[in-house]
Amino acid sequence: MKSTNIQKKLIIAILVVLSATFNSCATAQSSNKKQQYKVAVCDWMILKRQKLGAFGLAAEIKADGIELDMGGLGNRPTFDSKLGDPVERQKFLDKSKELNVGISSIAMSGFYAQSFAKRETIVPMIDDCVKAMKDMKVKVAYLPLGTESDLVKNPELRPVIIERLKWAGKQVGKIGGVIAIETSLNATEEKKLLEEIDSKYIKSSFNFANAVDNGRDIVSELKILGKKHLGQIHASNTDKVWLENDSAIDMPKIKNALDEMKWSGWLIVERSRDVTQVHNVKANYGANVAYLKKIFQN
Q: I need a labelling partner for 193 at 20 to 30 A (CA). Which of 21, 28, 70, 224 fits?
């Protein structure tokens, strides 16, 4: 009888261990499952441009990552970046790992005001960005074709911009990365531009604000561009109200469209600050990150 009881207890103990192991594996598999949509914030917009503190602030507002800027430009031949210094670069990588805050993309925000079409030192600038991408294992670079390279206002710049992007595509293609460009063109014209560039390494960085400001429907624009041409999304509007209070953006409808396209990638909060408290970084970006996660990660 004693032998039988011991055997029963042993069997129960084994079952308990097996059950715990199974549950542990299931939990690990669930936590490791790739998230279709991740939410990031621009480090320069949370006032932490190329600063380690961007990771801590992003963690505090529960963002999945940051869009890390290459640094200022001004009259320098290339970006004022710490990322070329192995010691400094490692600090960013260590902080990212420590806080579990990823890097969605590396931004060349200097081109908001500088001319991608006319800048003479474009080669070292792109080379520095691509090297940073390679060293930090980041697959996307963000390139805004800003005021000086606006193809709507300056269509004569189209040939040189295409030529330069063809070259840039070859450089980033060497590391299997992508340069995601933001233009002022509508989706139909941007798609034509991308097709003319003819590089799988040059894609679109779609900005909700550009569509809204020009009276375009976000969902229609996304569908025109299609999954093939969409590198990342700046998922915010011009400063006015938080995303959850913005009647110009139907976020559930946008998610449904992206689901149907089977697109996955980073949704990056740039603006959509409440103008009544525009300098309250935690309130503005915390609210917008929380809303995007509620819609896209629920």
A: 70
Q: What is the pLDDT of residues 37-80, one digit of tens each?
A: 999 999 999 999 999 999 999 999 999 999 999 999 989 999 99
> How much is the pTM?
0.88
Give the span between the Cα atoms of 25 and 39, in whole angstroms: 26
Q: For the segment 111-141, what is each residue's pLDDT rounded down to a tens digit?
A: 999 999 999 999 999 999 999 999 999 999 9
For residue 105, the cross-strand partners are 67
User: In angstroms, what CA-CA distances link 60 with 137, 203, 288?
Assistant: 24, 31, 13
Using alpha carbons, list the distances in angstroms from residue 249 to 209, 233, 236, 241, 294. Answer: 9, 14, 9, 11, 15
- Residue 39 and residue 104: Cα distance in Å, rounded? 8
Residue type, 218: I
